[in-house]
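dumping this here before i forget
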Amino acid sequence: MTPNKTARKGILLMNLGSPDSTRVPDVKRYLDEFLMDKRVIDYPYLFRWLLVRGIITPSRSPKSAEAYEKVWWPEGSPLIVLTERLKKALEPLAGMAVETAMRYGNPSTETGFTRLMERVEGLEEVLAFPLYPHYAMSSYETAAAHVRKVHEKANYPFKLTVMRPFYDDPGYISALAERISPFLERPYDYLLFSYHGVPERHIRKGDVTGHHCLQRADCCSVHSPAHQYCYRHQIITTMELTARALALPREKYGFSFQSRLGKDPWLKPYSVQVLEEMPSKGIKKLLVACPAFVADCLETLEEMAMQGREIFMKAGGESFELIPCLNDHPAWVNVLAGWVEAYEAGSTSMVSAM
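structure:
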């Protein structure tokens, strides 16, 4: 099926982004844009400016450039390449023109909108899919706010519809389980769901009740309006639903948080510490899934598959296997196409309420 131009609609797949190359200046430019986002480092502007441009990017850019060099593909950044592959796989199933946009770096949101307008004559509506399963101010919220700001500021002639986080959607859970399932056929001791971490203050800041999140040990299992915006609750929900779909025994899986930046308290347990401790607890054959990401990237391919593996094996592990993200897996492509079809049929269940 080719894009249906009579529909006059298009799809924008939004992901985090990547440097244009592994050169230090490109990495520094990317990190500067990323870390200066007030929803990523939520400090007052002047302090954020001094911290990011005076300390973090000068010291971190060369190290990050080395890390990107380890995972860079001949075609470019894995994250960009995989998002493009998803676009190409989705377009014939969705029957609409599909373009990509990155929150930071290229292609920009403006570029994505321009490409859709060039491809769809009389474009009337864009369906924006922030490719973040879980709500966090530093991922989904900033992407959704940014695409709306760009749309409003330029006064584009088309309607913009933003899709909601999909952490508990049955289709997403089914696709995730299908991706993981083949890896469970071989002997393993434990499946670790390693999620991107966020500062604890972000969780408290997003608590609409002002008195629930991180205020009690079981806050994520006690129903609350705060859960709509609680990253920790949502990642646990994804894990439990996926484990149920895979019929995993409770003692065979758990979660942790990776990618910590700075010294402030972040959500625990930290993946680094968990990986160090597992072998001494009898967990020698480990599987790792990273459901916070739908496309493999620096955090999965370098931080987890390389650094994480080294930590685990040095601590006494025997085998470490990273399960790929959903990427352009057919089950995931079908889920996205199904959401588009449901929306076209009048369903608003996947539409953001923001």
